[in-house]
Amino acid sequence: MTAASAVSAASAVSDAAPSTANPLIASSAEGHRRILTGDRPTGPLHLGHYFGTLQKRVQLQRQGIELMIVIADYQVITDRDRADRVAEHAENLVLDYLAAGVDPDRATIFTHSAVPALNQLMLPFLSLISVAELSRNPTVKDEIAHSRQATVSGLMFTYPVHQAADLLFCKADLVPVGQDQLPHLETTRTIARRFNDRYTPLFPEPQALLSEAPLLLGTDAGKMSKSRGNAITLGADEDETARLLRGAVTDNDRYISYDPETRPGVSNLVLLIALCQDRDPHAVAEEIGSGGAARLKRTATEAVNEYLRPLRTRRAELAADRALLREVLHTGNARANAIADRTLTEVRTAMGTF
Ligand code: ATP
Ligand code: MG
After folding, report:
1. Ligand 1 residue neighbourhood (C-beta within 6 Å)
2. pLDDT recorded at residue 53
3. Which band of pLDDT confidence, cut at 50, 70 and 90, is reported for residue 46?
4. Do 249 and 101 form a contact (C-beta atoms < 8 A)?
């Protein structure tokens, strides 16, 4: 068993574990046409993004599926007052995408704030979902718990509907995302279904494609997140990577084993090694065995630094060309606007509005 086949073990922490019987989760990319996924421009991408979704985006693009990437800049102000250095973060996301292998000539990379027709879809979509349904979303609840806000804004509460607009404006049918996105995708599918039933069949019900690491943990053994100070970024240098991994939470049991449910911190480091070396996490754990947390962390550092070396080299080269990064966004925004204008016209016709 390699890291790839350890999916169910890694995601056993969720009651939404991948299942081919679950229509929300695709078992493969077969039969799908267009992917959309995205990231908030709140900071540089980390290993959770890479193994949770970015690696899959690149693989699917190479298989010939059309790739759309939304830089979700309005989503930044869901859990903070201001979008701090948002343009700079957006450019750095483009940098991370290109360094990871996304082909900008074939992908559409855009910021949703620059696509007015996309945002207008949110109004009819809001009418298709109830407040009770929105308030049950477990990811939003978790994000509210970690947010820096004293109160919950209307945008925080309704951003899964905005995300439905991100997905449905381009009629994406496959979404390679981490586990935290599954409740949002369920909202999108509900909205698509209700729109199709109430007006005219226009929208697909997109499916999630989960990776081998749908929930990579950070150095504090909680979800690795840009905003929680627990991430190892793709662009970090080798010494910083070593320092961060040395500080990762493990446990007191000296013997290393792979058991994500009872030993989340240790198992996450084992999984990280397995992902970087394309190996079975149980075999990795066995090899380290009585070497303890110190050996586990040393091995993880070497594995991550070695795996990311080519990506980091490309990233450093591309970082010098800010004009290229901006150009990728301008082109992507123009393409996204053309698609969104077409979809909005279809929606207005379906609804019988002017
Ligand atoms: P923030 O803290 O600002 O919310 P984030 O680290 O959660 O940042 P997002 O931009 O919210 O990152 O998420 C972008 C994509 O990356 C989503 O598809 C999400 O599922 C995926 N992702 C984020 N963190 C992880 C993780 N730790 N493991 C697997 N996938 C992840
Ligand atoms: Mg997030």
Report:
1. 37, 39-40, 42, 48-49, 52-53, 177-178, 180-181, 213-216, 223-227
2. 95
3. very high
4. no
